[in-house]
Amino acid sequence: MPYFDTASAAPLHPVARQALLAALDEGWADPARLYREGRRARLLLDAAREAAAEAVGCRPDELVFTSSGTTAVHAGIAGALSGRRRVGRHLALSAVEHSSVLHSAAAHEAAGGSFTEVPVERSGSVDPAAYAGALRADTALACLQSANHEVGTEQPVAEVAALCAEAGVPLLVDAAQSLGWGPVAGRWSLLTASAHKWGGPAGVGLLAVRKGVRFAPQGPAGERESGRAPGFENLPAIVAAAASLRAVRDEAAAEAVRLRALVGRIRSVVAERVGDVEVVGDPERRLPHLVTFSCLYVDGETLLHELDRHGFSVSSGSSCTSSTLEPSHVLKAMGVLSEGNVRVSLPMGTAEADVDRFLDVLPGVVAEVRERLGAPVSAPPSPAPAASLVVDALGRRCPIPVIELAKVIGEVPVGATVTVLADDEAARLDIPAWCEMREQEYVGEEPADRGSAYVVRRLS
Description:
A seven-stranded mixed sheet has the order 1-7-6-5-4-2-3, sandwiched between helices. The protein is α/β, with parallel strands linked by helices. It has helices at residues 14-26, 36-56, 69-83, 99-110, 128-134, 157-167, 235-273, 300-309, 329-334, 352-373, 400-408, 427-438; strands at residues 63-66, 90-94, 114-118, 139-143, 171-174, 190-194, 205-209, 277-280, 290-295, 341-345, 388-392, 417-422, 441-447, 452-457. The protein is 38% helix and 16% strand. It has twelve helices and 14 strands.
């Protein structure tokens, strides 16, 4: 069964498995102790730190291991904000950061701080000039991911890091999705990552803090990991994480070329074989293994279940597949559909035949789901167009409001409007995105007795 969701968690690398088993025998003792077993454990920990630091591009004494990538993000943001509290309490971040960064920002705001979200372009990338505009005299920290976890767009980290350095603001980079493919360029100040994204075991994160960055660890003090990650180190997992990071880096150059070609094939073939689809994310400046596309008139949860039934494990940014039932903040910031999204992220070693079979299966699955939902094949003609129409989609989840809009848009003359009544939060994103894809005018949102009224003007 092809597994195409390595952006969530990569399969355990064979080198990680070997290192983990060896370290279970050799690295079980306390590395802080001076007896023989402790010294042996310390040697393993030091070697893992050196290997990880080399991959990151920092000094070994600048890097600590945490219990997860999320923990590394939380500790990094909290420590940097506290260390620079005399400068101010403002935080800058992009609108498409991982939820761990957004949660840290929300906690900072609840404690009396403030933050600014820098908007992104439709490709998912920030404009460095716009990011620089969010930096203020009281900005204590800036955050920017190296590459997006939902659409694969690589961010201009080097450019933003240079602007942050000019402003005297440290930049924290969440490199969870990209570190396995190579080091992060630029003058970043802090960096976080997560081992299970590159084929290491879950439960190991990295936090690098450059020398000279003011940093004050929060919470009760600990004796281990420079006081930045309290608790006993999971040494076998750390050893496996460092070994697998080195191994995937050795394979990265060749695999990046191969997977980029496979992803390029997905991007082109999906657009050719599946109607009413938009491939999202930057077509060039992107991770080599990840692609996301949005299908109009498709329920994301149903589509994923059907693909799973056909033997493909993929993910989605659709609201109905998240634990919160809220539209994806990444897709919302980009202005693309929040429903009907499929994220394909290929693990190293993916066979070309598996990709070809996926492309053969996908069009039929999408057509079946659309038929089940009653999606229009084309806009129906009308001999006597109405001056305007109101579509009542209250109580119906997306993509039904968009489907109902598509069914009737051809029944009004060019220049007339269709008003969609909907109370699903996703409609606020999907109706404007539908207008963008179908070249119709989104007039705006108006209040209604229940939900909202979304007004669309027919242009063609």
